[in-house]
Amino acid sequence: MSLPLEGFTVLDFGQVYNGPYCGFLLAQAGARVIKVESLIGETLRARGEQTTSSYPFALLNANKESISINIKSPGGQTLIRALAAKVDVVSENFAPGTMAKYGIGAEALTAINPKLVYASSTGYGNAEGPYRDYLGMDITLQAIAGVMSITGEEGGGPLKSAAAFADFIAGTHLYAGIVTALLKRSQTGKGSIVDISMQDCVFPTLATALGTYYLNGEQPARAGNRHPGKALAPYNTYRAADGHIAIICIREGHFRKLCQAMHREDLASDPRFDSFKTRCENMDALDQIINQWTEQHSRQTLLELTQAAGVICAPVNNLQDVLNDPHLAARGTLESLPHPHFGEVKHMHSALRFTGDSPRELAPAPALGSGTSAILSELLNYDEAQIAQLADDEAIGIGPS
Amino acid sequence: MSLPLEGFTVLDFGQVYNGPYCGFLLAQAGARVIKVESLIGETLRARGEQTTSSYPFALLNANKESISINIKSPGGQTLIRALAAKVDVVSENFAPGTMAKYGIGAEALTAINPKLVYASSTGYGNAEGPYRDYLGMDITLQAIAGVMSITGEEGGGPLKSAAAFADFIAGTHLYAGIVTALLKRSQTGKGSIVDISMQDCVFPTLATALGTYYLNGEQPARAGNRHPGKALAPYNTYRAADGHIAIICIREGHFRKLCQAMHREDLASDPRFDSFKTRCENMDALDQIINQWTEQHSRQTLLELTQAAGVICAPVNNLQDVLNDPHLAARGTLESLPHPHFGEVKHMHSALRFTGDSPRELAPAPALGSGTSAILSELLNYDEAQIAQLADDEAIGIGPS
Predict the structure, then answer these.
(1) Ordered DSSP codes for A29-77
(2) Is 0.95 surpassed by the pTM of this model?
(3) Do residues A70 and A39 touch, judged by C-beta distance below 8 A?
């Protein structure tokens, strides 16, 4: 069966995580994704490393082609306009106004190609507002959007998640907006301009904390791994013999099942723990009792005991655990592929899974400009002399083909 | 201009955040979203509260209709099968196997309606694998997927983000999978089964930490608000006179601009700070110098000074700051609406923004079962006597209409 986005072509100007993750999802769903890079290549190629293909770059740019175009040059801008006439989607996450500054913004390109879906994601979106032109990255979005204020140890300072989720949740919305616009186009024949703000995308993730805020009328104190607002217990990480595990009991039944798994059925009728309310009031005592049980067992044993009893529990896995996770392997999410510098590394398949469809076979991220000549020849009918001239003019870069 | 998903009808069995956020995005994009609830209503209605409409419930269920159906009853199951024949999408995030146990799983419903898109999101997805039947929630996914292991204070224990991002990033993928399947259906005429695993969705957010892992061959130590792997500086939160701000310098130019904003141009040529490498080696000294500057100014002043200089910076906002954020107001993301218990509260519009389209006018979350009679009458032609009989049989609940 064919992949859902076969036949669609995308110009992906994405950088780092947000835009490139969107392009990754598009490529894995079957689209032809042409990664447009400057003459020195996308910044993530070498981020923090002495190599030209960092692991995150390899991960997020699988199955893409690379065309190297200097969008600061008039010749490069002409090429972008010509390519925009031939493709279905342009996606970018530059600083606000970058594409327009070079005459290749949303208005210019959709005027050339009214069927085009032009999609951008920035820190704060393209609509009017005081932050519109502000630069944003994952850490600053976690700050301004409220995430840090509620995250951290009890009594400690505000903390970010080390997972770059503001970038990735925005990239997922960018993909979602593009496909929504393509679906609309299938009915109307017309393209759209999609505008994704990272700040907008992060807001809903505050739901629990905002619920507590409106209930109590004040900012909940940072609560470590406990429930924001401390309105649910057990809800925490606990010490295992070989690390930590997380347990959450959202219904009375979960707590009774946990008591059974601990062989402490007496706790369910203990007046300190016999209701949501009393368990929250005696949270410290309850967590201490649970720790006394968990620290006797390994994470794996605790996982099996709790899941067998119907308790919601999981080990706190480190990165090596995650890369070797038996479920991610069995499900086919992670797959080993050779990397130019690090030997075998784990690549992911798309989290968009369609039952019965085979996922796209993973192909390595492209070398910089390796598709330049072929793409210009195929999509724009440029001949060798024209391509050589553009390269001489430093409008394009021709990589190893 | 019409909204992109007008004309599509969705049965939304979503609970808490993951499924309901997907339904929220569908509704705001113009779909008719029928929220299917048990006779006592979705758990989020009263989560941790003494009310029947928690703030998160109101937030995520705007513009939905509510039908109350007891899917444990044969009469309720018959209704679901009849409704599935009439709609475009069924979306659910129950524990694995719940829908199939009641004879209304993906295979049963897509057999009834081959054009149906049946989409589910669970902790670990529906494909074969050791965790398939495990229960998962946001905190346990942050644990098992590696997020906690890299998040936390230097020298402290593993920590979750208090933002429920595992739930929301999965809900965004669930929406993305559904719209992708609808786009494919527009070409093939056939539905799909969409399978979203929260664990899959969280994996890419580890990108920075995994890059460090492959580069150094070991788990990076938890680094507070610093770069995971400490390969970039300045990159931290800093003390302001009235809280904290976050600053990140990803290019040499950003650091020079920060030095200018601080009136400390000397630092850019100081041998301790004149390259990425030396700045990382002297991170503590550099952070101390920056703190000496930032603690003299308010967050707002620092935001203006840094953004004017082209530095990537943002205040660490608390929840009240976020709810009153001038940009979220100016952009039209947040809007005040009355809430049955909390007075005026801030609702969000969709983060999927299409330039030139007016967002859907927000309508409050429905009362439990308030749409039951009308939906059964309209979609299935049931008459009053049939509906009364189903209510007597406790197959349905009829709320205030």
Answers:
(1) TT-EEEEEE-TT--GGGSTTSSSSS-HHHHHHTTTEEEEEE-TTSHHHH
(2) yes
(3) yes
For residue A121, the one-letter residue type is S
Contact B174, B121 (CB under 8 A): yes
Rg of chain A on CA atoms, in Å: 25
Chain A interface disruption, residue of B38, B53, B124, B159, most A CBs within 10 A: B159
Tell me the residues of chain A between 367 and 396 that have a Cβ less than 8 Å away from chain B.
none
The residue to which tokens 């993951």 are assigned: B18
Segment A209-244, tens digit of pLDDT: 999 999 999 999 999 999 988 889 999 999 999 999
Structure tokens at B380: 């299935």
Residues 6 or more apart from B259 whose CB is under 8 A from it? B265, B266, B267, B268
- Bridge partners of A66? A35
Beta carbons of A244 and B345 less than 8 Å apart: no
Q: Is B46 on the interface with A (CB under 8 A)?
A: no
Say which of A158, A181, A209 has its CB closest to residue B237. A158
- Give the length of chain B: 401
- Helix A165-188 to helix A18-28 angle (10° resolution) is 50
- ipTM higher than threshold 0.90: yes
B341-381 pLDDT, tens per residue?
A: 899 999 999 999 999 888 999 999 999 999 999 999 999 99
Query: For residue B243, what are the contacts with CB-CB under 8 A and spacing of at least 6?
Result: B299, B315, B316, B318
Looking at residue A330, its amino acid is A
Interchain proximity A139–B246, CB inside 8 Å:
yes
Amino acid of residue A123:
G
3-state helix, strand, coil in chain B (%, to 5): 40, 15, 40
Give the residue from B318, B320, B336 with the most A CB atoms within 10 Å of its CB, the best one to mutate: B318
Concerning whether A349 is annotated as a catalytic residue, the answer is no
Helix (H) or strand (E) holding B148: helix B147-150
Q: Is the dihedral of CA B293, B294, B298, B300 positive or negative?
A: positive
Q: Is the Cβ–Cβ distance between B268 and B209 less than 8 Å?
A: no
CB atoms within 10 A of CB A18: 31
**Smallest CA–CA separation between B99 and chain A, in Å?**
16
Domains, chain B = 9-203+326-397 (3.40.50.10540), 235-316 (3.30.1540.10)
Maximum pairwise Cα distance, chain B: 85
